[in-house]
Amino acid sequence: MKSAAIEESNGDGKGSSKIKTLLSEIWKHRMVYTLLIPGLIWLIVFAYMPMGGLSLAFKDYKANLGICGSPWVGFENFTYVFRDPAFIDAVWRTLYINIIKLFIQFPFPILVALMLNELRMRRTKKLFQTVLTFPHFLSWIIVSGVVINVLAYDGLVNSALAMMNLPTINFLGSEKMFVPMIIFTDIWKSTGWGAIIYLAAISGIDQDQFESAEIDGASRMQQMFRITLPNILPTVTIMFILSVGGLMSSGFDQIFNLANAATKNVSEVLDVYIYRITFQSATDFSFSTAVSLFRSLVNMILLLLADRVAKMMGGDGLFR
Amino acid sequence: MKTTTKLSWKSLVALTICLTMLLVSACSNQASEGSNEKDSSGAYKDKLKISVASTINLKDGELDNKFHQYWMDKFNLEWDYNYVEWDSWGEKLRLWINSGDLPDVAAWNYIHGDAMNYIDQGLLYKFPDDWKERWPNVAAAYSLTGLGDKLEELKGGTYILPRPVYYENKPADPLVNQIGVIALRKDWAEAVGFELKDVYTTSELMDYARLVKEQDPGKVGSSLVPISYNAADALTNIIMPNSEHARVESAFYKGEDGQYHWGPADQETLTGLQIMQQAYKEGLLNPEFYTWKNSEGSDNFRVSGTAAITSLGGLASYRQDVDKAMKKNLNVESDDVVHTAIVLGDDGKYRNLEQVNFWSALVFSPDISTEKFERIMDLLDYSTSKDGQMILNMGFEGEDWKYGDNNELVSLLPEGTSLEDKYPSRFEGLYLLGDDFSVINPAIKKDYRDRAVLHYQDKAKLGKEGGKLAPYDWDVQLYDSKSKNQATFDYEKEYANLILQSGDLEANWKKWVESKQSLVQPVLDELNNLK
């Protein structure tokens, strides 16, 4: 491996011939590569070009001077960030909620995909998949409206409890119930959608393996654990690494719409904090960019770490 | 070959059209759309389309009524109206101003730190130097705000028009903020044997709420809300009466020792919090009061009739609104069931904020054309004149009002209706706030106006005689720094959260105060080092 790399880097001729081969391959399959263009344009315009705005974190942004013209202030914005205890709290809270989500919520789409895969009646499978995927298309504003109406003091659940002469429960104002509520609603909303990627991975498994297993007398359960799961493991690993890379980002829409003054101490995650400092107090885009940059850096470090751990454990990583 | 040529030609045409449209739309904002030249009759020759943003909810079709038409015809303009919801007012204006999308003129909830930034960054229109001579009525009202002159000193010109609260009809001296007036159910008070007074302490109001909770004189059962406050109302009517520096407006203040302090850390704030927590624990406040938005608290009082106490505010027009809502929703005469009063702290002292004579401000787009700016200023100047004020607040002479035998104003509107019913969403009173005219407006019932003035006078008297009115400290208000901006808290949410936490309130409050020190202390240090 090492010698091959040295040979590659030293052999200029070989390197250029590799590029030539790549280019000729691209030209050969140019129609397929053309399909990449919209995605690439999107990536450049919406992901890479805005990165120039990250320089705001090191500037005292003035709208009239623009991003380039605003004066540099070094790490001054970061000193303001780290002296705010609400920021530190928000970081820990974000990690806390997302780690819990990762361990509780992550397996659900895999389980659902496995279960859907075992359904043999095509119509039933489609029905379940539609029912499970549908919540993904509802916005968090609608979902939180429903949740609030169901769980409010005069909502459906408490009214039912009152009718049965049972004590009512303050669901919406309880700090203890907030995180479970966030996780439960997120599982309900995202599981069906998340299962699609695993279903796609399952459909890519060579059917011969199942046929051979059947001939050998393997039960459905054995096929699931010995064939299906090992085959989708690379996808699971990649999804897990990506999830770890998003540990510092929480669903803003969900938490913002379900939170209230009573749950402030458990609901102000980084995204909500960034929103608050950007729009609810005096505007300071440099300050909020500094917070966002910090979050992205931590996310990137976590992503690289997870990738490394996955490789150390013998699995596939994101970067080869 | 032929096909290729055809396609290219079509593409070229499409591209040209796109580019032309782009150019037209890109340049249209800057282009002058007409002049302010007038014809022989004094009418403007050219019609201008002016975009305006305010928090008055103008519904579809309402621009067609006679009132709006009058202003559009008189100033030959067409409105492009942008309604801004109260909840997103600050946020939306911030986005508009920062992104250069501010309408030609907008009502903005003035924040000093933001104002300084916006002016420095050229995000607001700078008025011509001679504007005060050209629009004297606006200038006269502007001079009463105090803020206008201070900002001119700081920035060397006029960029903002602070909106005067009072102009010619100041109800009391010193003028105290209109907030801190509550309404309670008079009929229920009589039923439970609670004495009606003009002034109550917070604990007296809780006593009343307890009686109502025990006896349920309105027979509303489980829907009863003894004290129907949302988080903001609770701050205004429970915490502020006990701690005048608990609110954002006066949180940083100069104490008797000549040093600056942070009000939320005062023992008095803890007292207010303790009373609020007691009210919550006893079930006098709604279990989910902190989730209520806007008018949800007052709606229990005036729409569903399930509340014993609500936050009202001191303007006569607010009382008139309650009257209308109760008639419409509950079919009751509010005069028979509503009593208004002001709230004292539990130590018997009156606390509130000294009223600075402005609330919010008008700002203009930096890209506005001179012609549009002048046209708007012409409208503002007229709207601030006596004639303009009469039309804005009374409607049309001979049709909506007349002068009586003794030259007093007499409303000609049918009993039980208001100008708002006839001409909804009168946003044209952009500059001078309606508070001033409401003191003398005959369209508002005289009893309500008299009561509002009495509350103002009581506030002034109680404030002077042993009360604690938080002064409007120009040094603090006009001080701008990154630290001060960072130490801006949403106090109503913070307080609601504190009283809802489990454990000892005093210990939680101390912990909370401590947690804010890293942001608060730098501001105090900066203020104490001001020359």
What do you see in this structure?
The complex is a heterodimer of chains A (320) and B (531). Chain A has helices at residues 2-10, 12-28, 30-34, 36-48, 66-69, 76-82, 85-105, 107-118, 122-133, 140-151, 156-163, 175-203, 207-215, 220-245, 252-258, 264-267, 270-280, 285-312. Chain A has 320 residues and is mainly α. Chain A has a domain at 59-142 and 174-312: MetI-like (MetI-like fold, Orthogonal Bundle). The radius of gyration of chain A is 25 Å and the shape is flat. The two termini of chain A are 13 Å apart. With 531 residues, chain B is an alpha/beta fold. Chain B folds into 2 domains: 48-162 and 360-432, Periplasmic binding protein-like II (D-Maltodextrin-Binding Protein, domain 2), CATH 3.40.190; 181-355 and 455-528, Periplasmic binding protein-like II (D-Maltodextrin-Binding Protein, domain 2, 3-Layer(aba) Sandwich), CATH 3.40.190.10. In chain B, the strands form 5 sheets. Chain B has a 5-stranded mixed beta sheet. Chain B has a 5-stranded mixed beta sheet with strand order 6-11-5-10-7, with helices on both faces. A two-stranded antiparallel sheet of chain B has the order 8-9. In chain B, a hairpin with a 5-residue loop joins strand 8 and strand 9. The N and C termini of chain B lie far apart (82 Å). Residues 1-5 and 23-31 of chain B have low confidence and may be disordered.
